[in-house]
Amino acid sequence: MDAKTGFFYFFSAVLLYSALRVITSRNPVHAVLHLILGFSQAAAIWLLLKAEFLGIMLVVVYMGAVMVLFLFVVMMLDIDFERLREGFWRNLPLAGTVAAIMVAEMTLILVSPDVGLSNFKEPAALAADYSNVKDLG
Prior knowledge:
The protein is an all-alpha fold. It is 74% helix and 0% strand. The protein contains six helices and no strands. The chain has helices at residues 3-24, 28-48, 52-76, 81-84, 88-111, 132-136. It is extended.
């Protein structure tokens, strides 16, 4: 395994951890901070894939503007989170059913011989002076 693959697995593992913590954190400020961590890891993966423009835009737009605004709103509003959590157990069966359907659909897509990972081919080697930023411009 080369260094690029190792970095990809590291960034992916941290991204999965942060995504899990975004939805399981009880404190909304902690959830937002984990979301910022997830955005930084996704930007690093974009940079590994040589999509510099997308990686930088993720940092500038989401981490720079949206997350600061979201943190400001979450910290400044006095939201009663106990009242929001009251209907959790009542809605859990429906949410679990929807989640199971989504997992089944994603599994069917991934194992499909026409669409999924079985048809994935490695892109041809790019020229040393190739820049996708120039192509997007």
